[in-house]
Amino acid sequence: MKSALAIAFLVSASFVAGGPIRSSSRQCGTRISKGKMIAAEKQFQALKESRLTMKAAAGADDSTPGPINVYFHVINKNETGTRDDGLIEDDIIEKQMKVLNEGYEQSGISFKLQNTSRVHNPEWFSSASPDSAYQTDMKKQLRQGGPGDLNVYLVGFEKGDAEGLLGYATFPSDYEGAPEDDGVVVLHSSLPEGSTAKFNEGKTLTHEVGHWAGLYHTFQGGCSKDGDQVADTAPQGRPTSGCPRDNAPDTCPGDKLTDPIHNFMDYSDDECLTEFTPGQKKRMYDQMRVFRKINYPELPEVGAPETPAEPETPTEPETPTEPETPAEPETPTEPTTPTESTTPTEPTTPTESTTPTESGTPTEPETPTESEAPSEPETSAEPETPEEPEFEFPWEF
Ligand SMILES: *[C@@H]1O[C@H](CO)[C@@H](O)[C@H](O)[C@H]1NC(C)=O
Ligand SMILES: *[C@@H]1O[C@H](CO)[C@@H](O)[C@H](O)[C@H]1NC(C)=O
Ligand SMILES: [Zn+2]
């Protein structure tokens, strides 16, 4: 999946008995470079306008789109094994469909399971990851339907670049250039009742489908105004970890809004993720109308969230000019014309900043050389720190 992804985030490559190490916070492999994002947004705006014009010319079509067809592809590494080998039963898939539909209910988007295929392939199971040949091969062989159909691949993310991921997705704008690559790949044990602690209520699929429907992470672009291209999600400096529901951080203090820790497009634990905003709903409709040819209605623009109102500073009552000399009736003081309030400045279009080289080989986070320091039991797992430096960089992860 060359287009949507650049650098796959690498989690510590050491193994413990029983499986790959997973970070304590959500690891989504869906990311986009700033340069590519700017280009995609430009194309989106242009297509949105031209298709609206076409639609107006063709006359209004008020039919509501039906549910999105879903094709599950369940990859396993041992056909006679257990659920941990990827043998996910139909009842779990039904539960996952329910979680997915509940997550999108408020947005008026629904999903219907069309078919489930089960495939034995240990390599796809272990190593399918954003840029790997395994995933490309898998999707080429299994994908069903057209631009408006959702294909979900369940794998194990055990080795190499795949290790530690919870899921990744393609964006709607990627479809035209790589239709066979379209879809979402998620960790089988992130489905309801799975074995991945904190991420086993099925919200990973809800999150990845958010990307598939056109959403970025809520922390995309950090505290910058345009951020995730949705006006009513609070700016967010970094992903949320855990579920700090009683003490939500405010990583962009200027806006007086706490981080959107309950938003499906943040990184909080599953129990915390409960909502999309009206602005995200509109963006999904627009993205899917333009790129997936699904006839969602055009919704009104959604503004920025209300900032908590400042206690109004009462306007100083004008000190009335003393009517000392009552005699002179002539010089009436001109009613002061209210000064024009500053005209709102146009939202600055993001200037093309140094586009990070897409092609360049990702700078490998120095692989711990096997040979040296064999004595230390090496607590190299350190879940929090390694990903931090990338926040400054215009990638999302
Ligand atoms: C597959 O699973 C079965 C049952 O757990 C086990 O006996 C067998 O050794 C496994 N096969 C492989 C190749 O791991
Ligand atoms: C469902 O998937 C299986 C496995 O790929 C395939 O054999 C079958 O024809 C599919 N059924 C439908 C109705 O698409
Ligand atoms: Zn994501």
Automatic annotation (TrEMBL):
Organism: Hohenbuehelia grisea
Signal peptide residue numbers: 1-18
UniProt keyword annotations, A-Z: Disulfide bond, Hydrolase, Metal-binding, Metalloprotease, Protease, Signal, Zinc
Peptidase M43 pregnancy-associated plasma-A domain mapped to chain residues: 151-287
Coiled-coil positions: none
Annotated region described as Disordered, given as residue ranges: 227-254, 297-397
Name of the protein: Peptidase M43 pregnancy-associated plasma-A domain-containing protein
Compositionally biased region (Low complexity): 328-366
Recorded family membership: Belongs to the peptidase M43B family.
InterPro entries on file: MetalloPept_cat_dom_sf (IPR024079), Peptidase_M43 (IPR008754)
Regions of compositional bias (Acidic residues) in chain numbering: 313-327, 367-397
One Pfam match: Peptidase_M43
